[in-house]
Amino acid sequence: MIVKKSIRFLALAAIAGTAFSAQAKDIAAGKAKAEAACAACHGKDGISTIDPSYPKLAGQHADYLLLALSEYKSGARKNAIMGSQATALSKADMENLAAYYASLKGTMSTKR
């Protein structure tokens, strides 16, 4: 009984994994959009150096970035600059940007 459930779970996980990878976000498109719309404030590689109040995006979790952009676009998160930037982004743009920044190596680390 447990073996059957395990096999069923593994089969479903394999199918879901294949479907997820087929829907992978376009990191190259995210990079192009980042260079055009984000780099002036957030840095060429997502590491802002011009103002310490500008977040470093490199290495940030994609789901967090997508949520933040969605909230700027909807007005749930308030910032005049980010609100106007996010308004111009499509859902695909936001997903691609999030995937791109998440793919970069961040500057934060944890010691164990």
The gyration radius over C-alpha positions equals: 18 Å
- DSSP strand tally: 0
So, CATH architecture of the domain at 26-103?
Answer: Orthogonal Bundle
SS-derived structural category: mainly alpha
What is the CATH C-level name of the domain at 26-103?
Answer: Mainly Alpha
Total helices: the number is 6
**CATH homologous superfamily label of the domain at 26-103:** Cytochrome c-like domain
Q: What sequence of helices (H) and strands (E) makes up the elements? A: HHHHHH
Low-confidence stretches: 18-23
Q: Specify the biggest β-sheet.
A: none
Instruction: Let me know the average pLDDT.
Output: 86
Outline? globular
- CATH topology grouping of the domain at 26-103: Cytochrome Bc1 Complex, Chain D, domain 2
Instruction: Name the beta content range.
Output: under 5%
* Helix content class: 55-70%
The first-to-last residue Cα distance is: 40 Å
